[in-house]
Amino acid sequence: MTLTEYFIVIIVVLIFIVVFQIAKASEYVSVLKGEKKAFEQNNRINAFLMLVFLVVGLAAAWWCNKILYNKTLMGIPSASDHGVNIDTMMWITLGITGVVFVITQVLLFWFAYRYQSSENRKVFYYPHNNKLELLWTAVPAIALTVLVAFGLYYWFKITGDAPKNAMEVEVTGHQFGWEYRYPGKDNVLGRQSYKLVDPSKNNPLGQDWNDAANHDDLHPSELHLVKDKPVRLVIRSQDVIHDVGLPHFRLKMDAVPGTPTTMWFTPKVTTAEMKKITGNENFVYEIACDQMCGVGHYSMKGTIVVETQEEFDKWIAAQKPQFLTAHPDGVAPAAQSPASIIGAANAEMHAEGH
Amino acid sequence: MSNEALIQPGVISHEVHEHHDEHHHHETFISKYVFSQDHKMIAKQFLITGMIWAIIGGLMSVLFRIQLGYPDATLPWLEDIFGHWAKDGKITPEFYYALGTMHGTILVFFVLTAGLSGTFANLLIPFQVGARDMASPFLNMLSYWFFVLASIVMMSSLFVQTGPAAGGWTVYPPLSALGDASQGSKIGMDLWLTSMALFVVSQLLGGLNYVSTILNMRTKGMTMTRLPLTMWAIFFTAVLGLLSFPVLFSGFILLLFDRHLGTSFYLSDIVLAGKILPNEGGSPILYQHLFWFLGHPEVYIIILPTMGLVSEVMSINARKPIFGYMAMIASLFAIAVLSFLVWAHHMFVTGLNPFLGSVFVLLTLLIAVPSAIKVFNWLTTLWRGNIRFTPGMMFSIGFVSTFISGGLTGIYLGNSSLDLHVHDTYFVIAHFHIVMGVSAFMGMFAGIYHWFPKMYGRYMNNTLGYIHFWITLACAYIIFWPMHYEGFAGMPRRYYDYSNWESFKMFVELNRVISFAAILSFLVQLLFLFNFFYSLFKGRKVTTKNPWGANTLEWTTPIRPGHGNWPGEIPEVHRWAYDYGKDGRDFIPQTEPVSKDESTH
Lengths: 354, 601
What we know:
Oligomer: heterodimer
Strand order of the largest sheet of chain A: 3-9-8-5-6
Structural class of chain B: mainly alpha
Distance between the termini of chain B: 39 Å
Radius of gyration of chain B: 24 Å
Largest sheet of chain B: 2 strands, antiparallel
Strand order of the largest sheet of chain B: 1-2
Order of helices and strands of chain A: HHHHEEEEEEEHEEHHH
Shape of chain A: elongated
Helix content of chain B: 55-70%
Low-confidence stretches of chain B: 1-22
Radius of gyration of chain A: 31 Å
Low-confidence stretches of chain A: 337-341, 343-354
Order of helices and strands of chain B: HHHHHHHHHEEHHHHHHHHH
Structural class of chain A: alpha+beta
Number of helices of chain B: 18
Largest interface: A-B, 129 and 137 residues
Shape of chain B: globular
Number of strands of chain A: 9
Mean pLDDT of chain B: 92
């Protein structure tokens, strides 16, 4: 430990001792003064502090909002159409809960201050009031119905079927990174099986090369999306559960091994436009893994580029199908039925002793 | 138990024998302090074991907050203490994740479930229903010792070479099922599962006792609707635990099978570290259903007892009956029932069927209604009262404040469309820490300060109590309030370092402030512990049976009750527990018969 660290420890211990001595002394003083007087004094101080806490607390909440608001996404428009709905929903909820929060906290601390013990007050024996209780059952129920109605309306819109013109992209997570697969010219993602996964043979996604639909599938290192064109993500995981977290699009979906999931949305703002909106030259849409997936969880990052159709067309034309990377001569291996390939993979596994 | 005996362990107090002739067995040190079957002693054992766990769990949060607040700092003393876990004075990612996982496990289960229910159910049930002890004192003792066993196993996992479980306190498979997926999923995970299985046994033994004692051993005149709200709250808590812990247990057993017997309950289609695993047909989502079927009731297992404690302490110190006693019971009941029907709201983004999701949205937001009723009833209890700010009362007010703050954010998370945005971000951390962390601790502190005189025949130091309260409340808000903003930025939880993320790296200073407040609040808890143990031996002595002027039965027992609680007959009950300020009288104990000219309500 360094000298400063020893110093900090010593100071903390000293503060402890001082606080404790004061507390002990105050107890003796209260015995000397008489329990009743000491109680009254403590009660007045604490009642006053209740009021102070309320005022300082509300002011601090306001100040906190002032300095942090612009660091959040609240002031930045959502990059997806679904996100716009979610933001609306967020503001409605903030409004309702905000009002309830302020009213209840003010009442709580005000009552605490106002009704501090006093010899002159006779307490009001008030065990129940059915009308009042019915009122505050009904009012929250109505408010919550509104929130549920809005929430579910958007929920079904977001989780409903993707539009027919949506482009499809497969996103696969593994410890600790993301892989993307585009269907290529035929617009069909070829068959794949986890049993065929073999990065050493340039097949990190387990594509079945006997399926011709695979021959034009692309495997770029970034996810490129087109502004105003709906996209449907097919999300897979190869090992543990991951999550495709898209904060700027206000969306999330888990990647679950064995169970592909889907999510669709329409990007609204290109990366270039977002750079201007945020005033941040380095702005980039990031995919954050949002499900604890192991020791590298915090570094499991992906990049999304949202661009115009022209830019996208240019980019995708430059991508090389994974099939050609795996088969530089451009010829598929002798045709085998997929079943026999999978069988072979199994045999290989058993040979390895698993 | 006498206080003198506690100061000089081994000395058998004569008082014990004087006070109740019906228990003439000879007590030894072992039977009195170790394998005790006295509910009061078992309560203290649970409390002190819980405190030890709370220090360990709290210290873990201090360590990972150091990493979050000072990601670039090198602190050589960390390496001195933790060796390769803090290589070059920096907490390693493995260590960080192990700390977070164990912090969650310890605080949720060992402190706020066993430490909280174990303490107050054991202490208060026989006292407040008017019984000499629990229905089965022996099972009660076993419950504590199973908890100790679970604690020992969990503690030992901290010392194995590959470290304790590190996949988050929910231990989702496949991460937790495959040793190759994470260091923490090796032997540490087996110890974790074993410990939790023992823990479930402890909870079930305790829960059976709580339910049967409350139902069967009430004294004459103590009808169910005359029970103090603490009893109702503990009763529902115990029922929740009995119905949901076995499901968790089954989930853990299946996970153990997947780990060691080659089954595929949770595993399918996995390629890990270049190896293609043979498992097929399982679903990791099945585990999540089993886990959250306990996991959600669990948060109510934590908060319901504190609701009971707070209702009681608040009514006593406002010198006014709790408002809407029947509505309080009804809302406890509603919360208990609904808590079983909302578990999948933790799983909106797992690919759950959207229609199923919508049902869970509806049921989840429904739970806000009974919660709102309780808050309004507490507020009305304060209204026109005559409030005494004992430390217990102040923590009760703190409880209501944090329960409101944390409860309202549940409305965001329970609404599936909003959950898409804030799920697994700091918003979630803020939400559940305020509502079931801070709030539950506030309730627990209220209980400890309030019943300390009953437990030890002495008072805790008030001034230290006030300091403890104000700093804890302020720090709680400083720590968790700004986290909502981090959540609104989409900042994911369980990240070791944010500096490489363009989207999340702007909160460096804020994280430092939060870490500072977290460390300060941890130190203040040490002050509380110091107050507790100091007052146990040197606190001001209680001189009257009923120091708070309370109505319930525990305050009719001697100041230091022996085994059996009442020296003579168990008193008979004639009224509910909340006749404060009635007909101009400050309080009317439950044991006083209703007189003819008394007003009715």
